[in-house]
User: Fold TRAF-interacting protein with FHA domain-containing protein A from Ceuthmochares aereus.
Amino acid sequence: MSSLEEAETEETVTCLHMTFYHPCQEEKMMFRCLNFHRREQVRADELAKFGRDSNICRYNLMDSRVSRIQFSLQFYRKLNSSELCFEIKNMSKKTKLMVDHTELGYLNKIDLPQKCIICFGDYQILAEIQEGESMDYFHTRLHLAEVPILQERCLPSLQPVPESGISYSSFPSQGKSPTEIDENES
Assistant:
């Protein structure tokens, strides 16, 4: 047998990609303590906490309007399943946390969707889970967005979208451009 045949199968690791945006980032540098573009290993039994208290939080946001612990992420395996997931919990008494269209009050928690936008105050975070098999640890990889994530997510293609929100290029059967009519006309 060759050494390749005898080698153990490499285990894939779940990676949580998080893209951060704040409109004042260039002036206030609230993300200066985050390690961007580098995978960081987190033990499975450890809570990944985000907030301004560097003694408690692994991911620090340098902003006095952010709670000492803003939110936490817990890695877990679903009961009677091999599926690995994250649970997000709002740890702020003052600020509600939005996960896509779900509002979380203090100590409320939900499963983190495969791809979602997390918002609090002026902060926008795009979270995307890249699935893996390891149950001992997971990775995080942080990115910095140049433009608002909500704006970027609403425009999936580079095609301009008219004010009506309907892109006529997505309806190939309609070759003519929209016509403006008076609301009294039929």
About this structure: The first strand starts at residue 15 and ends at 21. The chain has one domain: 13-147. Residues 117 and 126 are 5 Å apart (CA to CA). The two ends are 79 Å apart (CA to CA).
